[in-house]
From TrEMBL:
Gene3D superfamilies: 3.40.50.1360. This is Glucosamine-6-phosphate deaminase. Keywords: Allosteric enzyme, Carbohydrate metabolism, Hydrolase. It is an enzyme of class 3 (hydrolase). GO terms for cellular component: cytoplasm. The gene is nagB. It catalyses: alpha-D-glucosamine 6-phosphate + H2O = beta-D-fructose 6-phosphate + NH4(+). One of its GO terms (molecular function) is glucosamine-6-phosphate deaminase activity. HAMAP family: GlcN6P_deamin. Allosterically activated by N-acetylglucosamine 6-phosphate (GlcNAc6P). The keyword Plastid does not apply. InterPro entries: Glc/Gal-6P_isomerase, Glucosamine6P_isomerase, Glucosamine6P_isomerase_CS, NagB/RpiA_transferase-like. It comes from Streptomyces nitrosporeus.
């Protein structure tokens, strides 16, 4: 997989925003898969700045969710639909009709999962899927030992993930839902260009096992090694566990600029 080491989170956000801008110039109605959490915020901020300056036209762009909590009431500020509307759709000036996601409040959650998987395919597939990574190597909410062929489905969150996400719920783990709908690893691998962003020393071990370790369900993100065009963007801290860091730096430095990510 392509590994790009950048100085810091801001540089990573700018680089990925440039890739999205280049994609939209080629395909104005591209479907962008977005992730939530604090890691991708620099991407959305850099892309919004490009929109404001007129450097990129997002008027026909479409956005889709990676995952959604199960059981939060409609309009809850920490539902991922609310987060994506607040952090992506509104700053980019997109209409809510351009946004699609799974229904975490549906009576039949299994049917909602299957419906979302079909909707992504019927929309032509995801052109660029932005991903974060958990400290245990999960992507989306595909926790360790998830099937590498899994489709969009309901998952039970591990205690560690609930602890990690409690900061979004007033540091109260009791408010964090126990279940989520997530795109499966098989679904994610169908995106044309998955782009994983990781920052901070806390992600260094997960990044190293994802990039340099074996493909294994215990490290779900390692499945990206199977994709023909997966990019991992990491800051220096997140790259600190990579044995081949110098090789990755040299390889990307030698890459023709016109190729982008």
């Amino acid at each position: 997989m392509e590994v790009v080491i950048v100085p810091d989170a801001t540089a990573g956000g700018e680089l990925i925003a440039e890739a999205i801008a280049a994609l939209l110039s080629r395909k104005p109605d591209a479907l962008l898969g977005v992730a939530t959490g604090s890691t991708p915020l620099p991407v959305y901020q850099a892309l919004a700045a490009k929109v404001r300056s007129g450097a990129v036209d997002v008027s026909r762009a479409r956005v889709c969710q990676l995952d959604e909590y199960v059981g939060l009431p409609e309009g809850h500020p920490e539902s991922y639909r609310s987060v994506v509307l607040r952090e992506v759709v509104e700053p980019l000036g997109l209409s809510e009709s351009s946004f699609m996601g799974p229904d975490g409040s549906a009576e039949d959650i299994q049917a909602a999962c299957e419906a979302y998987d079909r909707a992504l395919a019927e929309a032509g597939g995801v052109d660029l899927q932005l991903l974060g990574i958990g400290t245990d190597g999960h992507i989306g909410f595909n926790e360790p030992c998830s099937s590498l062929a899994s489709r969009t489905r309901i998952k039970t969150l591990t205690e560690q993930t609930r602890i990690d996400n409690a900061r979004f719920f007033d540091d109260d783990i009791e408010q964090v839902p126990h279940h989520v709908i997530t795109q499966g690893i098989g679904t994610i691998l169908e995106s044309r260009h998955p782009v994983l962003l990781a920052t901070g020393e806390g992600k260094a071990d997960a990044v190293a096992r994802t990039v340099e370790g074996p493909v294994a369900s215990v490290v779900p993100a390692s499945a990206l090694q199977l994709h023909p065009h997966a990019t991992v963007v990491v800051d220096e801290a997140a790259a600190s566990g990579l044995k081949l860091a110098d090789y990755f730096r040299a390889t990307y430095a030698a890459k023709p600029r016109w190729q982008g990510l």
